[in-house]
Amino acid sequence: MTDAIESYTVFTRKYAFQKHKNLHLWFPNIFEFKGGIQVYSAFLLEALQNLYPQVTYDIFLKHDSGCPPNLAAIANSKFHFSGTWPSALRTVAFATHISGHALWQRPCLIISSHVNFTVAAYLLKRLIGIRYWTVVHGVDAWNITNPHLKMALQHADRILAVSNYTRDRLLQEQHLDPARISLLPNTFDPERFQIAAKPTYLLKRYRLKPEQPVILTVARLEGLERQKGYDQILQALPEIRHQIPDVRYILAGKGRDRSRLEQAIARLNLQDCVTLAGFIPDCELGDHYNLCDVFAMPSQAEGFGIVYLEALACGKPVLGGNRDGALDALCEGELGVLVDPLDVGAIAQTLIQILQGEYSNSQIYQPELLRQKVIAKFGFDRFQQTLASYLAPYLSST
Fold it and tell me: Of 109, 180, 192, 200, which is the most buried if we count CB atoms within 10 A?
């Protein structure tokens, strides 16, 4: 009986949406750069296509100039690229593109994965009544002062927040209707991130012994990304080395902050302790998680943090900050360790405890349990189910 009800629910949901035919998705990019918003956008597209395979999707990408050949002909989906325009003209070109197609096609719904695009959506709603949703991730939605953007947020039909932290900040700062802001946390692909032994090729690359304790952070090395806490880990390392002399810190990522970090490493005399690994390709990311003994990113302004989920899926202890979206990703400390991101001493002592197997939450030393729990809470199936629950009432009213 339960299976029959579920089948009927799926059928009616798909039928309701298929009556409207067309949906517009506005993304910054998904192919040529892989940041958090880009990954989220790609999963959002996949979930929608799975839930409503007969709907036609027009996907507008501001910064991409093309897609891989194997993705060029996805059924019922058409990609529109603005990345071929010079950067100085791209915003105007993108706005013209999305507005012109919306006026022509009259989609049943616009979903934007970046809040900055909602001004155009608001104008379209005022002009021809198209409803729109937007996703808020983190810093993109905090401290908004632009009056046009504030107005667009006020009139969005639904706002999807990736974490309670982002949702609460948006409510506090913009005084929005709480009923229109729903949680749709980040997700990940469990097949890409599996529990495995430390990869031999990475041990050789970084000249590590298998038993040598490794701390890992994965982040872009840019000035705006310093809030992720890698500076605090560098400052904590002298104290950590005093207790664990052979510890190694691998900081993976590229960016313009690298030269400053190299100077800081030299100033702290950490040249033989810290490795700036540079850009890590997607095919090696899971191996790097498996190389480490603890993944640490004591951030103070992270909207969520997909990297936490990926590390947990590899069964690794994870340390995050206790002031931002890491609270959601680590389930208030159930799945990991939360510290004050500004307290270097606390970061040092906590990492020492974790590496010495003395941290009080014994669950962080149970790889299979960590993996099961993070998949149950944040896996793609859960993401898709949550999205469907938000779309169903909306569709039934159209």
Answer: 109
The answer on 389 and 370 residing in a single domain is no
Query: How many folded domains does the chain comprise?
Result: 2
Both 9 and 156 in a single domain?
Answer: yes
Do 160 and 215 reside in the same domain of the chain?
no
Long-range contacts of 67-70 (CB under 8 A, 24+ apart): 67/31, 68/31
Among 88, 85, 90, 94, residue whose Cα is nearest residue 24: 94
159 and 279, same domain (yes or no): no
pLDDT band at 395; cut points 50, 70, 90: low
Residue 192 in any domain: the answer is no
- Rounded to an integer, what distance in angstroms lies between the CA atom of residue 194 and that of residue 24? 34
Q: What is the pLDDT of residues 184-241, one digit of tens each?
A: 999 999 999 999 999 999 999 999 999 999 999 999 898 877 889 999 999 999 999 9
pLDDT, tens digit (0-9, with 9 covering 90-100), for 279-332: 999 999 999 999 999 999 999 989 999 999 999 999 999 999 999 999 999 999
Whole-angstrom distance, CA of residue 258 vs CA of residue 281:
18
Q: Are 138 and 168 in contact (CB under 8 A)?
A: no
Q: What is the mean pLDDT of residues 110-125?
A: 96
Give burial (CB, 10 Å; 0-12/13-18/19+) of 33: exposed
Domain assignment of residue 223, yes or no: yes
Largest CA distance in the chain: 68
Residues 6 or more apart in contact with residue 167 via CB below 8 angstroms: 136, 161, 181, 183
| 0.70 exceeded by pTM | yes
Range of the domain at 24: 2-187+379-396
pLDDT of residue 339: 97
Specify if 161 maps to a domain.
Answer: yes
Confidence tier at 70 by pLDDT (50, 70, 90): low
| Residue 194 forms part of a structural domain | no
Average pLDDT score over the chain: 91
> Would you call 203 exposed, middle or buried from its count of C-beta atoms within 10 A (0-12, 13-18, 19+)?
middle
CATH number where 148 lies: 3.40.50.2000
Name the nearest CA neighbour of 112 among 170, 23, 22, 27. 27
Taking phi over 0 as left and psi of -120 to 50 as alpha, with beta for the rest, 164 belongs to alpha
Same domain, 226 and 93: no
